[in-house]
Amino acid sequence: MRWTQTLIPSLRNVPKDAEAISHQLALRAGLIRQLSSGVYSYLPLGFRVLQKIIGIIREEMNRAGACEVLMPALHPAEIWKKSGRYETLGEDKISFKNRSGHEFVLGPTHEEIITDLVGTNIKSFRDLPLNLYQIQTKFRDEARPRFGVIRTKEFIMKDAYSFDIDEKGLDLNYQKMNDAYHRIFTRCGLKFQVVNADTGMMGGKMSQEFMVICPYGEDRVASSEGGYIASQDIAGRGDPHLKTPAPKSSKPEAFDTPNLRTIEEISHKYKVLPHQMIKTLIYMADGKPVAALVTGDSEVNESKLRKLTGAKELRQADGPEIQEATGAPVGFAGPVGLKIPVYADWDILGIADGVTGANEKDKHLKGVTIGRDFKPTATGDIRFVKDGDLAPDGKGKLTLTTSMEIGHIFKLGIRYSESIGAYFLDEKGERKPAIMGCYGIGVNRILAAAIEQHHDTKGIQWPEAIAPFAAEIITVNQNDEKVRAAAEKIYEELTAAGAEVLYDDRDERAGVKFNDADLVGIPKQIVIGERNLKDGKVEIKDRAAGATKVVDLVSVISSL
Asked: Residue 455 above 90 pLDDT?
C-alpha cells in the first residue's frame, strides 16, 4: 500500500478531549475518527488492525471446534421481554418502532437470539453439543462514552455460545474457550490476567474476566501477595474481628439536619468523619424490606448482601417503600428502632458513638453504638473491598488495580434455554433444557489495550501479529531518482513475496516521515537514503527495540 493512495491523517498535537493514551495515539496515528459521542469510524490503518485481531480470533475459535454464524442486529423486542431482560437493559438499550408499529432493539448481545435459533433446530441429544460464534457490531446507549474505543455506543464483539446436554459437557466447552482465549490474547501481544467475576446482567452461576491493567479501564481487580485475585464486584475480604469500643455517650441523641440527606452533606456540616457514620440503605429482599448498614465511606455490594440475606431477588427500595419501612423520606434512615431485619457490615462493629439517620425527616442521631442501641439480624462482609483490606485467606492485604475487561466467559446454565426455549430429548426420551455457556471478546478493546501496553513517547509500537503492516518503506528524498527506484524495487519484491508493506512515497521532509513512521508504529522501518544507497545498502530499524542495522540492498527480504 502506498501512503499517497490511502487515508492516514496523522496529527502533530494531542486532541484536547482525548484522555487515554490509546485514544490520543489512535487519533494522532490516523486509526480512528469520531462521528459522534461514542461512535467512531475506523480508517485504513485502524481497520487493518481490527482485521488482524479478528483473523486471530477466528483461527482460534475454529481451532477450538466452534462454528461461525452471523445473526441479525435487529431484534424483535418481544424476545427480550420473553427472557425478562428488556427492563434490565433499561436506558442502555437502543430501541425503536418500525413503520408497522413493531418495536425492535438494536442488539447489545445475542443470548436470546442464539437460544431461539438453536432451540428451533435441535431435537435430541444427538444434535448436541454445539458451539456457535459470531463477530458482529453491537449497540448500547452508553451514558458516558469515554477513552476513545474503550467505552463506546457501537462496538465489535466476538460472542460464542455453547449448548450441551449436561454440566460435564459445559465444563468441557468452558475449558476449551478458556484455553482459546489464552491463545488469542497471547497472540495479540497482550499481558493479561484472569479473575473470577460477577455474572451481572448475563446471569448464570459463574464467570471469569480476562483483564489488562489499564488506568482508563472501568473495572478494578483485587489481588493479594498470597495469590488471591478477583474482580472487585465479587472480591471478598477477611473478617477483621473488630471489637466495639466503649461508647462515651449514654444513649443516642437526636439533632436537626434540615435538608441534609447525604453522607457528604452531614460530614461537611458537622465535621463528622465518614467512617464514623452508619450508612443505612433499604432494600427489598424477595419483596420484603431489609436494612443494610455500612460505614459512610463504603458502598454496599448487593451480591454479598443477597448472599447474607439468603434472598433470591434483591433490589434497592424506592421512595414510598423506604417511607413505609422507616417512617421517613429518603436520606434519613437509621438502624435504631427499625422493625425490619438489619444486616450490618463487619466494619459497623468497630463504631461507637456513630452518626446515622433518625428515621424522622430532617433529623439524625449521634452517639449510636451497635449492640447497645440496635442489634443486627446478622453481620458479615457486605461492602465492596478497598485497598488494604485483609485478604479472604488471611494471607496479606488486598491491592486494587484499575483494569479493562477484554474478554468474559460465563456458565449460563439453563436461564435462557428455559425462558426462550432450547429443549432436547435425552436418551430416555425426556425433554430437557440445553446447558449453555457464553463467551465474549471486545475486539475494539484489544486494539486499545495493545496501544496502552505497547507505546513510547514517539507513538505506537505494534505487536507484529496485529500490526497494520509488517514493514514500512521510508525514502529520505523522494525526488532522488535512484532512491525512488530502489524503494520501488524493494516494494515490488516484498509485495511479491507476500509481505504486507506500507510505502511512504510522499514528497515530504525526512523528519516528517520519520515522525509519522514512529507514530504509526509499524514494526520494521526500511529507510532508503542517498548516503547508504551509494554503497548498495539500506537501513532497517526495529520500531519496538529501537535497534538499527545496515544491510545490502539485495538482502532486505532475508533480513526481515
From this structure: yes
Grid coordinates standing for 440? 465474549
Total-model pTM: 0.88
The single residue listed with the C-alpha cell 452471523 is: 70
Give the cell for residue 148: 476513545
Strand partners for 158: 135, 441
Please give the span between the terminal C-alpha atoms of the chain, in angstroms, as a whole number: 18
Q: Distance between CA atoms of 5 and 105, rounded to whole angstroms?
A: 39
For residue 492 the three cell numbers come to 515490488
Q: Which three cell numbers mark 398?
A: 488486598
How many helices and strands, by DSSP H and E, does the chain display? 15, 31
Instruction: Kindly give the pairing relationship between strand 459-460 and strand 471-475.
Output: unpaired
Query: Residue 303 has which C-alpha cell?
Result: 451480591
**How does pLDDT run across 371-427, given as a tens digit for each residue?**
999 999 999 999 999 999 999 988 899 999 999 999 999 999 999 999 999 999 999
Q: Span 505-528, mean pLDDT? A: 96
The CA distance from 332 to 357, in Å, is 4
Amino acid occupying residue 190: L
Q: Is the peptide bond before 129 cis (omega within 30 degrees of 0)?
A: yes
CA distances from 39 to 28, 36, 44, 117, 174 (A): 17, 5, 17, 29, 32
- 212 and 191 Cβ atoms separated by less than 8 Å: yes
In this structure, the strands spanning 501-504 and 471-475 are parallel
The string of DSSP letters for 399-426 reads EEEEEEEEEEEEEEETHHIIIII-EEE-
What are the structural domains, with CATH classification, of the chain?
17-68+108-235+401-451 (3.30.930.10), 253-380 (3.90.960.10), 469-559 (3.40.50.800)
**Phi, psi torsion values for 453, nearest 5 degrees:** -90, -20
